[in-house]
Design a protein that fits this description.
single chain; 271 residues; Rossmann fold; 2 domains; 54% helix; elongated
């Protein structure tokens, strides 16, 4: 597929926050965009029948129904992708209900971002290579940081990146609330790294709890990640409770040994 090809893009869920973001993104790239939502004249089936590429920007709790209503009407030569935060079940569902080319897409950023430049986007190949190549090249041309994963690799990794991360942030927020510590004092004494954590806690007020619940409860690998984290939390808690300095230093040095490997892959960020 020629890189200059400009498909007509249809967004199902085009009035949601990420749907609107991608609507603007595609329009700014010079593509024709059609949208459907619960209160639009165009239906999801209209989008399927009229657009070369269909992007599903719908909540995960209604994803299966939307796919069943939409995917069977997409011509075999066209393209279907989604923006769900989980992929294993979602990609399987898209494949089951369609005959077109399919891949999963996970933008690892929110609707508050102004551009695609420097933002990570996960792509999960599923059926066909022609549209997959065009989609990746299109995102790369807008300076996205794309990476390919199987749906299983994606969800297993997201159990750490999202499920465990959200778990830690929720526990931190509830602990601060229960302690009743003065937030002014905390901010006056916060290190840069802890201030970043507090900002994440604060920004939860802008997030959708239904989405966070789905990410936490819907990922088949969440409990494995949390069980492993819990094991070492319990171990470290015992070390501290026992005042075992030698054991603490041993564990600290073991984690330090991860540093060189992690730094190979980390983007440089301020201390």
């Amino acid at each position: 597929m020629d890189s200059s090809f400009k498909p007509t893009v249809g967004i199902v869920g085009g009035k949601g926050r990420m749907g609107r973001w991608f609507h603007r993104f595609f329009q700014d790239a010079g593509l024709e965009v059609l949208i459907s939502d619960v209160d639009t004249k165009l239906t999801a089936r209209d989008i399927a029948e009229q657009c070369d590429m269909v992007l599903l920007a719908v909540p995960m709790d209604c994803f299966d129904k939307v796919v069943a209503d939409t995917a069977p009407h997409i011509p075999k030569t066209n393209f279907l992708t989604d923006m769900c935060s989980l992929k294993q079940r979602q990609v399987k569902t898209m494949l089951q209900h369609s005959r077109c080319q399919v891949c999963g897409t996970h933008p690892l950023f929110g609707p508050g971002e102004k551009t695609m430049a420097g933002k990570r986007v996960a792509i999960c190949p599923a059926r066909g290579s022609e549209w997959l190549g065009w989609w990746k090249a299109f995102l790369d041309s807008h300076e996205a940081l794309t990476a390919m994963f199987t749906p299983e690799e994606h969800d297993r990794t997201m159990a750490w990146v999202q499920a465990l991360n959200h778990f830690i942030i929720l526990c931190l927020g509830k602990s601060l609330e229960e302690d009743g510590i003065d937030f002014k004092h905390i901010l006056e004494l916060a290190t840069p790294s802890f201030e970043r954590q507090l900002n994440i806690v604060a920004r939860l007020c802008l997030q959708d709890p239904e989405l966070y619940a789905t990410i936490q409860l819907g990922n088949p690998y969440t409990n494995t990640a949390l069980n492993t984290f819990g094991k070492y939390s319990k171990h470290l808690r015992k070390i501290i409770r026992d005042g075992d300095r030698e054991a603490f230093i041993k564990m600290f040095k073991e984690v330090q040994e991860l540093g060189p490997s992690l730094l190979q892959h980390c983007r440089k960020t301020p201390d």
